[in-house]
Amino acid sequence: GESVGLHLPTLSVQEGDNSIINCAYSNSASDYFIWYKQESGKGPQFIIDIRSNMDKRQGQRVTVLLNKTVKHLSLQIAATQPGDSAVYFCAEKHSGANSKLTFGKGITLSVRP
Amino acid sequence: NAGVTQTPKFQVLKTGQSMTLQCAQDMNHNSMYWYRQDPGMGLRLIYYSASEGTTDKGEVPNGYNVSRLNKREFSLRLESAAPSQTSVYFCASTYLGQGRYNEQFFGPGTRLTVL
Fold first, then answer.
1. How far apart are CA A35 and CA A48, in angstroms?
2. Are B44 and A103 inside 8 Å of each other by CB?
3. Are the beta carbons of A103 and B101 separated by less than 8 Å?
4. SS3 for chain B, per residue?
5. B4 contacts B25 by C-beta, under 8 angstroms
6. A110 vs A19, A23, A57, A88, CA distance in Å?
7. Whose CA is closest to A103, among B8, B58, B87?
8. What digits encode the pLDDT tens for the residues B13-54?
């Protein structure tokens, strides 16, 4: 069946370095791809989304890249900070008012001081 | 605004017991969702309510029932709890319509253990 998954379960980066979190998806019909951040003991929090007709979108310190040719999504975090330590989920959805999100399994980002 | 609130935060049940997880949002959102999160897994949708008065099954609805009590409140009921339902449960809401309907707002979660 269709699935959204992540390549690596954990990522460790040095504070101040850039982080790249990768995600593979298999549903070519998805219209939106979304990144969520989940801090320990809390619910997920929306970070950024990208529509399928785009290949790059920038936010505050974050950039999402979409490569539809290889069905790959990535989240880049610039100048990683200790507060970025969390589990990151990619998710996908179709357009339409009742479309639901399908989440990947999550990857843990650990920032070394 | 409190955002999305969930009660209780923690709960321990014995197999066969029933309980209701409560969720409320004060953001005037029309759509609400219940997810479960298990170790090493992403979030899986149990049920959702696209608007007041409607509910639909998600990916893993078996063993659960829901009630959209009003626009603000969406409850999840376990009629006869099983150990397989040990999980962390999240409620979320969003506004479907114009704007950022990709952005679901999540509650803090309910950690449920079934013995």
1. 6
2. yes
3. no
4. CCCEEEECCEEEECCCCCEEEEEEECCCCCEEEEEEECCCCCEEEEEEECCCCCCEECCCCCCEEEEECCCCEEEEEECCCCHHHCEEEEEEEECCCCCCCCCCEECCCEEEEEC
5. yes
6. 10, 17, 24, 11
7. B58
8. 999 999 999 999 999 999 999 999 998 778 999 999 989 999
Residue from the list A41, A97, A101 with its beta carbon closest to the beta carbon of B96: A97
Q: Is A42 an interface residue toward B (CB < 8 Å)?
A: yes
With the C-alpha atoms ordered A107, A73, A35, A103, is the resulting torsion angle positive or negative?
negative
| Rounded Cα gap, residues B112 and B38, in angstroms | 11
Sequence-ordered strand ranges (E) for A15-68: 19-25, 32-38, 45-51, 56-58, 62-67
Residue B99 confidence class, pLDDT cut points 50, 70, 90? low
Q: What is the pLDDT of residues A52-101, one digit of tens each?
A: 999 999 999 999 999 999 999 999 999 999 999 999 999 998 766 567 88
Nearest Cα to A102, choosing from B21, B104, B63? B104
Dist. CA B53–CA A107, nearest whole Å: 36
Give yes or no for A87 touching B (CB within 8 A). no
Q: Is A43 on the interface with B (CB under 8 A)?
A: yes
d(CA B95, CA B76): 20
